[in-house]
Amino acid sequence: MGTDALSRSALTPTTRFLERLAQCPQDKEPFVLLTTGSFCPIHKQHVNMQREARNFLENNFPAYVVTSYLSPSSDAYVERKLFKGMRHEFHLTFEERALLCQLATEDDGDIEVDKWEGSQPKFIDFEKVTLHLQSYLNELSAQHGLRPVRVCLSVGVDMLKCGLHSVQLPYSLVVVHRAGFPLEQFGIQNLPTELEMWRRQLFFAPTEEVDEVSSSLIHRMLTEGRPEFVKALVHEKVGVWIQQRWKTAKGFRKSKECKMQ
Fold it and tell me: Which pTM value belongs to this model?
């Protein structure tokens, strides 16, 4: 295994991956789900999206989801994003965001936190992150005499604005969207059939989720002096951490402590 793979072994948990891949039924194709993003902070919808994607794939296709990863982006990306919106006080370091992701998923037997992307000195786009993870996991599975897996990037419907549905992707993509959501605004007149989805590696997973949850909403609740409302939007332990930090610092990070990279 190369130097890059050796360094990645300390950042990407694979014990569960190898154990479950060995248990994959022969009539199923093994999948690994991946969600990237700032997670500043992580909220319930981030986790629910992974669960919805898993359920959709396993209930509608000959798919077996081996495991799922949350991949927090690098500080370089998050600082630039927050500075662009003049929201300096909401900055969380990569280590803090990774910690909150772990708190949000520690009781979940299907989702783990991959620290490789966020540990890189520069921003890496989601396509490279997805392909790098797939390459690493398949190299590892081959060493253990196991089958190759298909890494599937799980995204929200807003990612359709990037035109991902209109190109031939070198990886699989599952778009989790609210049932009845008007996808026409993204140029999608009719959802592809299940066979078309399987062939194109592009899956549309409807969900009955109705609550609008976002990191921006959490920021607004804190700014308006309503930190108690944040509890309903995040995992319990994440909520406790956020409230303690906000109470003591009046912000996740002082503006002067945030510097552009």
Answer: 0.87
